[in-house]
Amino acid sequence: MTNNKNRVSTLGKFRNALLASAVTLGVAGVAASGAILSDTQPVRAEQVQVQNQGPADFTGLVEKVKPAVVSVRVKSEVNPVTFQSDGRGFSMPDLPDDNPLNEFFKRFGPRGFDFDNNDRGRSPHHRNHPRFGMSQGSGFFISQDGYIVTNDHVVEDGSEVTVVMEDGKELPAKVVGVDERTDLALLKVDGNDYTYVNLSKDAPKIGQWVVAVGNPFGLGGTVTAGIVSADGRDIGAGPYDDFIQIDAPVNRGNSGGPTFNMKGEVVGVNTAIFSPSGGNVGIAFAIPASVVTDVVSELRKDGAVTRGWLGVQIQPVTEDIAEGLGVSSTEGALVADPQDGGPAKQAGIQAGDVITQVDGNKVEGPRELARMIAAYDPDTKVELTVLRDGRERKIEVELGKLGKQTASADTQDSGEQAAPTSLEGLGLAVEPSQDGDGVVVIGVDSGSPADQKGFEEGDVIVRAGGKAVRNGSDLENQIAAVKGQGRKAVLMQVERNGNSRFVALPMDEQG
């Protein structure tokens, strides 16, 4: 209630400010025309009017597009789970606490719903563990001959897919293909006379009205409206994150449903929400229509999406890392690790290289590089521009196919033992790794620079200042060399749980 009062008060002040601006603008206009202002000649100020761009209502739009939106029911065999009633006739299985998606958003399409006729409307927590569950989501026709777009996570692991039309008619559907990396799926039902909608060719602008239609909590045909809140959102769902953020209320079950612009075109496919409670809080994410168009085209043609593969682990070039590399720009993608057997390593790409261009096109950061490489077909040759040791190089790489398994070389125990090395200025204690490749962190001082940068016991430092290190002496020498160059941080390549990353570790006067 307090927020509403503040809002009313703010709007009132805004209205007064507009009126004041109208008078000021009117006076300025008369003065600029050269007229003589006097007490006997009144000033006529034109009133400033702001046209309301919003529609009076959405009925025309809804009547046009709603028949093309369907509910998607997916029957799947499930493992025994523990159900908890939420007090409204719906139940949800317990989700693992370590699920990374739970840290940021709640996926829709709740698993474990049982819609057997004898149990409809009853809370299932009284029943024994079911052998089958039913998930629900949304979808929409994109062609007259029965092709339907939805989310991959709606139909994954499904043994039987059914779409429910606006009039309640149920149709069996076939999964034509799925793309896990963009969370899209293409379905097909028999028939050739369906109302369908088009995918927009134009990206929506922030502030534009949008309408979401879907099947939240099993309540099919639900319509909500809002605006585009932001674009280009990266929510950690995958390497190709480029979500549209909307504030139209969407909830569990809206997954796979469309978001429309005022022309009745689909601008996005609702995929995720950010919600501490699991319900709508006004932050929802949709896959842009441009992505949907490309993915669906390949799914319809081949049943799968093939993408170019470079074979590198990459990370952003932060200001600290740029300082450690001795470069002034934070643009580009830093290669943390070229994978063994991958195209990049075979072409000569090294850890510590910064990829700045692909075929002459500028790379802003890791996300842009991932999308640019994915747009190429496998076996395509591309020219990468990289920064190495302060110099620009051109390297030609023949891309592989994303998803290709690569073999890693076996490591052998060298059997060497050496005394630990303490780097007090950095807050690290290290010893040589068993395979002789790098040094293992065996201690991190609390509150030290290393602690603040996230170092943990068990991390392996394989390079420092661009050079390989095999023992504490190598590391100390590289730190001294970097300090002698006048740099404030030493760039270290650190491996943890099979993943590689670069960390710029600040050096104090005694480091």
UniProtKB/TrEMBL annotation:
GO MF entries: peptidase activity
Gene Ontology annotations of biological process type: proteolysis
Coiled-coil intervals, chain numbering: none
Enzyme Commission number(s): 3.4.21.107
Primary site of residence: periplasm
One Pfam family, short name: PDZ_2
Boundaries of every PDZ domain copy: 311-390, 406-497
Catalysis: reaction(s): Acts on substrates that are at least partially unfolded. The cleavage site P1 residue is normally between a pair of hydrophobic residues, such as Val-|-Val
Secretion signal span: 1-22
Keyword Repeat: yes
Keywords in alphabetical order: Hydrolase, Periplasm, Protease, Repeat, Serine protease, Signal, Stress response
Domain of life of the source: Bacteria
Compartment list: Periplasm
Family: Belongs to the peptidase S1C family.
The protein, known as: Probable periplasmic serine endoprotease DegP-like
Organism this protein belongs to: Rhodopseudomonas julia
